[in-house]
Amino acid sequence: MIVIRDNYVFNTGRMCIGLGGDGTMCANNITRIKKDVWRPTVTGENATHGSSTNDNRAIEMRGWRWVVDGNDVSTPGKIADIYVNANRNSGPQPCRNVTIADNTTRSDGILIQGSPASKNVIRDNRHVGGKGRITNNAKAKLSGNKGC
Length: 148
What we know:
Number of domains: 1
Shape: globular
Radius of gyration: 14 Å
Structural class: mainly beta
Oligomer: single chain
């Protein structure tokens, strides 16, 4: 298992922590992304928004069997702080055995998606500040989450 833990990441663009594959733990990290920075799309001609986010996320994971635990994350704008997306441009991909627990989000919350999906858990997370949400497109069991 790969372990990414106990880091403070201050970022001016793209993603703070990115991981993929089978079995990774991402724990006890603090991430901040500088506000009011122009983040271009890959063409360099437009600002990122919507599906052209160009990976401006605090934590992005692809694959399966992750543990995301005890992180304190924040992103500018309407981008999920914790972004778990097993799907690819070519279509849906499996999202299984993912645990997102005991994290603090400060911007737009948590997104998880993938299909087929099983044994995913989002529990005991806390959102601080404005409107946070959990976008659950991977049949995750939700419990004990506050503010989202």
